[in-house]
Amino acid sequence: MASLSYPKSVRLHYRKDFQALLDSASTHYNAVFKVFWLVRECPEEVLDGIAGDVACATGVRECNAGAVAPGTGENVAGCRFAVSVPKKSFKRAVKRNLLKRRTREAIRLNRQHLPEGFCADFLFFYRVGEVLDYADIEKAVVEAFTAVPAKAAAKAASAAGNAEANTPDTSAEANLVDANAVESSSKSAEKAQLDNSDNTSGNE
Fold it and tell me: H or E stretch including 147?
């Protein structure tokens, strides 16, 4: 069963983390949220947890008491979340707090939809001018948890492809050098043959 906890480790609350997210974030829109997201390096404890899960699943070692079972979604603790509801749209704090609670609950119950080992920071910005039911909010959260990792994977693949395209083709350069060397050697041989021919003609 997936973990239903929402510990401090999955909450984005430091000012410097918010600033880093907003400075470099990509965005994803759906019917309810504007989602700011930024992939980050996974903490060591998350990577260690994944390795432990694999070992348990394959029977390489005996699982310790309380170890995380594979596929439970525990390792998505590498992701951190924050929720923002604009005061401009909802003047009353009671409505803003209600929407935040519903969004956090949707995150808590559905963060296992994120791929294991995917580490990113999320800011869910509520952009609808009305108070939606929990079901609508949950649907939007699940959609974001499915779409954002796909976008991140495509972005990483594109960056890798661009890096490969910008890498000089040393094999092509080597082939060109070899071709030039062969051509030069051939010209030298032809010149030597002509010189020998001239010398022979002079002797006659």
Answer: helix 134-166
The C-alpha atoms of residue 131 and residue 189 are separated, in whole angstroms, by 87
CB neighbourhood size of 138 (10 A): 19
Measure the CA–CA gap between 34 and 56, rounded to whole angstroms: 38
Distances (CA, A) of 174 to 64, 113, 168, 179, 183: 55, 49, 11, 9, 14
8-166: which CATH topology? Ribosomal Protein S5; domain 2 (3.30.230)
Find the angle CA(130)-CA(149)-CA(144) to the nearest 5 degrees. 10
Instruction: Tell me the three state secondary structure of residue 117.
Output: coil
Residue by residue, DSSP assigns 66-106 as TPPPTTSSGGGGG-EEEEE--TTT--SHHHHHHHHHHHHHH
In this structure, what DSSP letter does residue 23 have?
Answer: H
The predicted-structure confidence for 94-133, as pLDDT tens digits, reads as follows: 999 999 999 999 999 999 889 988 999 999 999 999 999 9
Instruction: Measure the CA–CA gap between 50 and 63, rounded to whole angstroms.
Output: 13
pTM of the model: 0.67
Looking up tokens 């020998």 gives 196
- Inter-residue contact 32 to 137 (CB < 8 Å): yes
